[in-house]
Design a protein that fits this description.
Order of helices and strands of chain B: HHH
Largest sheet of chain B: none
Radius of gyration of chain A: 23 Å
Helix content of chain B: over 70%
Strand content of chain B: under 5%
Oligomer: heterodimer
Shape of chain A: globular
Number of helices of chain A: 13
Shape of chain B: elongated
Distance between the termini of chain B: 47 Å
Number of strands of chain A: 0
Largest interface: A-B, 6 and 7 residues
Number of domains of chain B: 1
Radius of gyration of chain B: 18 Å
Structural class of chain B: mainly alpha
Number of domains of chain A: 2
Number of strands of chain B: 0
Chain lengths: ~325, ~110
């Protein structure tokens, strides 16, 4: 398919469909993430990219046959590898015998929160999640380093002019967006702090929060959004989230436990777990939201500067 | 009373389902972009709305009802705006509607 727009739309639809089959498999937390990241933000970032690079793929120079052979051989090796694996859903599979029973049976007494997914993600597997957050942080920093736009100080009147001139044609969208954004932000906060009790947590909440900000900057223009959300603060928050997560680990080390062992954070182990999970989820939420905002700002900043110049020339 | 609610709910659900199917047929059969987004608009707003109302009549408790009402409100706010934005973007980028001329009789 040469039309990249259609490819992106298909990828988005696939994201939404896989979210719905995660729901049918009772993995609501994963479905949540897939719906917000796979169908939402990543589609949006790719759309922003093709609005800069162009809609159609260039004619191919590589040899498709060679690639096909490589894919075929790798695929058959992988399928051959699965032959030794236990049957799907088998009760004797190592994954069902190793640590999973401990998590499922002891989560309530050790961590004391109803959502096992959160207790596994944030407490039992806290170190893995720390790695994930660092990966997201690194991605954000890499995009920022590659695409860094010099945020030119623009006069407020100039931004207002550009906005007012387009106000008439965007009136309905702006009105409804203005009405919805508070609810989206509220929902993000709910997902953030309700992650212990229901599906949700820092990753999902961060993406939803970022989606609200991105919606605002799409509808009202990037320069207005930059006036509301200053980019240096977003950059600071990106690092602050990872720092908060790491600090919780260090504090628990200093208090005599293992790294990210929340039991020692408070006199009561369960209360310590709650506090630790709350703090690291907050760190995850901060980093994810600000990395998404940062990536979007940098992606669309390049295009935006060009457009504002054009607008100035025509008026 | 229960049977009345069940029948009314079934009517709403069937009507909603029918409108969704017509919307799908419309996307495939209508001649140009603007008539097609009209078809999706019917699916999004009226079809989904009727299905949600049909479900509301069958809820076991108030919490589910509130959730369904919120979903309905969101649908009613967001979908027409999305359709509007889509149509406006198409018109702005120069796609003109297919108008019935003497030689050509539409779809």
């Amino acid at each position: 398919m040469k039309d990249l727009f259609a490819v992106i739309m298909l990828a988005g639809m696939y994201g939404l469909l896989s979210a719905s089959f995660f729901v049918t498999m009772d993995a609501v937390d994963v479905a949540f993430t897939e719906a917000s990241v796979g169908a939402g933000i990543s589609t949006l970032l790719m759309l922003t990219t093709i609005s800069m690079t162009g809609r159609y793929e260039n004619t191919t120079r590589h040899r498709p046959m060679l690639a096909l052979v490589v894919v075929f051989v790798t695929g058959s090796l992988l399928i051959y590898g699965t032959l030794d694996m236990p049957y799907f859903g088998s009760a004797q599979a190592p994954i069902q015998l190793h640590v999973a029973p401990h998590y499922i049976n002891n989560s309530m007494s050790e961590i004391g929160i109803p959502n096992i997914v959160t207790s596994a993600l944030a407490s039992y597997r806290g170190f893995d999640t720390f790695g994930e957050v660092v990966v997201i942080f690194t991605a954000g920093v890499a995009v920022w380093a590659l695409l860094m736009v010099n945020v030119q100080r623009r006069k407020n009147t100039e931004i207002d002019d550009a906005n007012n001139s387009t106000h008439e044609q965007h009136f309905i969208v702006r009105f409804v967006a203005k009405m919805l954004i508070p609810f989206i932000l509220l929902f993000a906060l709910y997902v953030q702090f309700h992650g212990d009790y229901g599906p949700g947590g820092g990753f999902q909440a961060g993406v939803i929060f970022a989606a609200a900000i991105i919606l605002y900057s799409m509808v009202f223009g990037l320069n207005t959004a930059r006036r509301v959300i200053s980019q240096p603060i977003v950059q600071l928050l990106t690092a602050a989230g990872v720092l908060l997560y790491g600090s919780v680990g260090i504090v628990s080390l200093l208090s005599g436990g293992n790294f990210l062992d929340y039991n020692v954070l408070s006199a009561d182990p369960i209360a310590g777990q709650h506090l630790g999970i709350l703090l690291i989820e907050l760190g995850v939420g901060c980093t994810v939201a600000s990395v998404m905002i940062l990536i979007y700002f940098n992606f669309s900043g390049r295009k935006n500067d060009r457009e504002l110049e054009e607008h100035k020339e025509t008026t | 009373m229960d049977i009345v609610i069940a029948v009314v709910s079934a009517i709403f659900l069937l009507l909603g389902g029918f409108l969704c199917v017509t919307g799908g047929v419309g996307i495939l059969r209508f001649p140009d972009f603007y008539t097609r987004i009209h078809a999706t608009g019917v699916t999004d707003t009226l079809g989904a709305g009727l299905i949600l109302i049909g479900l509301m009549l069958q809820v076991p408790d108030v919490l589910v009802l509130v959730k369904l009402v919120i979903i309905l409100l969101m649908t009613l706010f967001i979908n027409p705006v999305a359709t509007h934005a889509l149509a406006q973007a198409a018109l702005k980028s120069g796609l003109s509607p297919l108008l019935q001329s003497k030689n050509h009789k539409g779809g």
